[in-house]
Amino acid sequence: MIRIQITEYDYRHDLYALVREFYPGTEVTTEILPPEDNDFVRLLFCDGPESGKSRQSRVILLPDAKACMDRLDRKNYIKRCVFEALRDDTGKEPPWGTLTGIRPVKLALAMMEDGRSNEEISTYFHDEFETGNDKISLVTEIAEREKKLLSKIAYRGGYSIYIGIPFCPTRCLYCSFTSYPISLWQSRVDEYLEALFKEIDYVSSKMKDHALQTIYIGGGTPTTLTASQLDRLITKLESAFSFESLLEFTVEAGRPDSITEDKLQVLRHHRIARISINPQTMQQKTLDLIGRKHTVQDTADAFHMARELGFTNINMDVIVGLPGETKIDVEDTMQKIRELGPDSLTVHSLAIKRAARLNTDWAQYAAYKITNTAEIIDMTARYAREMELYPYYLYRQKNMAGNFENVGYAKVDKAGIYNILIMEEKQSIVALGAGGSTKLCIPEENRIERIENVKDVGEYISRIDEMIKRKGDRICR
Questions:
Q1: 254 φ, ψ to 5°?
Q2: Domain 153-470 belongs to what topology?
Q3: What pTM, to 2 d.p., does this model score?
Q4: What CATH number was assigned to the domain covering residues 1-93?
Q5: CA 452, CA 436: separation in Å to the nearest integer?
């Protein structure tokens, strides 16, 4: 157990994440000291939470210069001091340095848009955050690609839509998203759609003077809907919104066990080009463990079916760091993905969320080692490039296996624009459905305003008028 003692209340989450980088799996707590104790951060290494005994204490002195800094510089300075001390203590050098709770590409992109050179960006990341050269190169490569892709996006007059379908065949071991077993909710799906249609009508009436540029139907698993229900939903969107400015329409088909020919035919009928078929892994033993009720062959069959029906923009997701998987397992998955040849691929580093069963029932799965290394991440990047897929977006989360990142790779003309928009927060995204989180970009105030829908499906249905009232006129200003 490690206790962090500091006077800076606002920095406790950043220091917590930083210490966890060096001591993964160790319990870390924070304690706020009186303001007069303002010249250090103390790390107490304790025998255990019960004993409270300290077997080692590390005091990191903070020079007086920090008192003259603004809040952001002060925070970064304190994090660098802690990082350098822990690096000296452990001999470890986390590749992202002190970057915690930051979208690195968003920062690099903003600097590019301000006219800063790649060399200036590299120097800033190295000096300010102690970021490694490999990660700096990755960030600048992606930022350059995003800048080009976003050149056709209307930040002020345009917007995007997210449609949430919160049903899944089963709940995966690592999942913390809003999702409900379709077997238990099948009788209420039509009720859910009626509530969703009401929200669609409201949003379309408010946004009629704005240009709709991307639509993303996610979840959950949208293809838990029947073909008829899926057709009704897309037909509703087509009748409610103008698609004149639409650049991209994605349906996250997701789970192979929910994909059928008649559902894919519906998507083709509506001229939807971009779909996802997500195996997460091509190891059957892992699929069984994490609760995916499909086989490796089901994934291949769904992919081939989509290709035969004419889909030319298919994304696949894999997760590195799944319980019990080794580098050999991940490489075998990448080889099988390469044989299929998707148009884009997202490589996720497992993030163990608080509400996921893998966390709440950890003792049951503690025997399964979670492994993610620079060697594995580099190997997935090599396979992506062999498939002529290039990195186009990146994001990081708390508690990621190995403290790495999630990277989206795509063929030159197949990058997912919505994925970039949700990460870089350049354009307002109006979210509809249970658990939807609307992000309104207000550039003149340099801030993001969020409007949340309730997560519970039953609550969403019964309180749909309230969900609409929450949006009010805020979405169209």
A1: 70, -105
A2: pyruvate-formate lyase- activating enzyme (3.80.30)
A3: 0.91
A4: 3.30.360
A5: 6
